[in-house]
Design a protein that fits this description.
Blueprint: E1 10-25, E2 31-47, E3 51-55, H1 62-69, E4 77-82, E5 85-86, H2 92-100, E6 102-105, H3 109-112, H4 119-129, H5 136-150, H6 166-178, E7 184-188, H7 196-213, E8 216-221, H8 224-230, E9 233-238, E10 241-247, H9 248-253, H10 258-265, H11 272-277, E11 319-322, E12 325-327, H12 332-336, H13 368-371
Parallel strand pairs: 3-8, 3-9, 6-7, 7-8
Antiparallel strand pairs: 1-2, 1-4, 4-5, 9-10, 10-12, 11-12
Bound molecules: adenosine-5'-triphosphate (ATP).
Length: 372
């Protein structure tokens, strides 16, 4: 590990995690012609009871990282140490046991809930798989508790997903995750498919549950505004790796990586005087394809602080710059102390997706202003 973990108890430790998807081509025999470097060397630690927010543009590898932690996607390399055990090497019964303790809540509850299953069946499925449904009465009690915990009436048990609103369906998704008594919940864009009016209710529910049950969360989002309120610490991801990590307040008040600065500068400020006077950093060009990441620092093709040396040749490590504040930029101190200033960037054109017709380039990724 290259970073110092604060003295709290660590529940999850990810070390140099890589997920590379092979790009296959060929009419008769599939030949691997390259790789999508979806996750390419991530180190992070999540403490018991905390909420870690993971943000970045669409296609930067957030979901793949979340899925790899839960072993829903195979790892190419690295470790996922959960409560002291490396789950990357687990198989069979051991893997099943570890999986019970790590659950996922998905972005779109409509597509993640089976429309043919009643809520009762959805909630008991995981319990059955993990042998938690031995006694009928205890199971019925547990189902009532679960529904109460997520704020749904008991009558929901006999209903089907289409009979609920988006917010209620997400409550079912959360209840399903809770049914097997997990310690860690990976919530992948848990509110982005919901109406703005309902988003706060679901965020509040997640917070209440965390307090009551002592849960640990990894919350994945493309929207920095959403994670700010819920997260204790935040990691910013760009093209497969973390570029900055800090506690939520530090990240917002003192962002050091140029990419984080650009993301934050795109969030509108309600005060019109502040809004008119503040600096807006517009990123040039689109996110390069993760099948052909740029050399050196992966952000250098769009970076307004790019320098003549190092940036396009040496990949910067995530290093600790202040207490618990890690940044992957060769010039973080110079940026922090104002010794170097941003300049206009002509984006180097990186053709996206020409290696990979199946995966394509990246879905509609525009400037930071469009992303947030
Ligand atoms: N099974 C797969 N096979 C090949 N490439 C994949 C696969 N899954 C994801 N990718 C590619 O890996 C990259 C990272 O995808 P990922 O979904 O993790 O990003 P993301 O940041 O979560 O984006 P989004 O918010 O759009 O889900 C993308 O280029 C994607 O096309």
């Amino acid at each position: 590990m290259t970073h110092t973990v604060p003295a709290q108890e660590v529940l999850l430790e990810v070390e140099d995690l890589k997920v590379h998807f092979p790009i296959k081509r060929g009419i008769v025999v599939d030949k691997t012609v390259g790789h999508v470097f979806a996750v390419d060397g991530v180190d992070l630690a999540i403490h018991k009871g905390e909420t870690y927010g993971l943000v970045g543009e669409s296609g930067c590898g957030k979901s793949t990282l979340g899925r790899a932690i839960l072993r829903l996607t195979e790892l190419t390399a690295g470790k996922v140490v959960f409560d002291g055990t490396d789950v990357a090497g687990l198989k069979g019964e051991e893997l099943r046991k570890a999986r019970r303790r790590m659950q996922m809540v998905f972005q779109d509850p409509m597509s993640s809930l089976d429309p043919r299953q009643s809520v009762e069946s959805i909630l008991t499925e995981g319990m059955k798989a993990h042998g938690l449904d031995k006694d009928k009465e205890a199971t019925a009690k547990r189902l009532r508790e679960l529904l109460a915990a997520v704020g749904l009436p008991e009558s929901s048990l006999r209903k089907y997903p289409h009979e609920f609103s988006g917010g209620q369906r997400q409550r079912i998704g959360i209840a399903r995750a809770l049914a097997v008594e997990p310690d860690l919940i990976v919530a992948d864009e848990p509110v982005s498919a919901l109406d703005v009016s309902v988003q706060a209710q679901v965020v509040n529910l997640l917070e209440d549950l965390q307090e009551k049950l002592g849960l640990t969360y990894l919350v994945i989002a493309h929207d920095l505004a959403v994670v700010r309120h819920i997260s204790d610490r935040i990691g910013v991801m760009y093209l497969g790796s973390l570029v900055e990590e800090a506690d939520a307040d530090t990240l917002y008040e003192n962002p050091l990586h140029p990419y984080t600065r650009a993301l934050l500068s795109a969030i509108p400020v309600p005060d019109p005087t502040v809004e008119d006077s503040r600096e807006q950093i517009l990123l040039a060009g689109d996110l390069p394809s993760p099948a052909r990441p740029p050399s050196g620092c992966r952000f250098h093709t769009r970076c307004p602080w790019k320098q003549q040396s190092l940036c396009d040749t040496d990949r910067p490590q995530l290093r600790e710059i202040g207490a618990g504040h890690r940044v992957a930029c060769h010039y973080a101190e110079d940026i922090r102390d104002g010794r170097i200033k941003p300049h206009a960037v002509e984006a180097e054109l990186v053709e996206a997706g020409d290696l990979n017709p199946d995966v394509g380039g990246l879905p509609d990724v525009g400037s930071a202003a469009e992303i947030l």
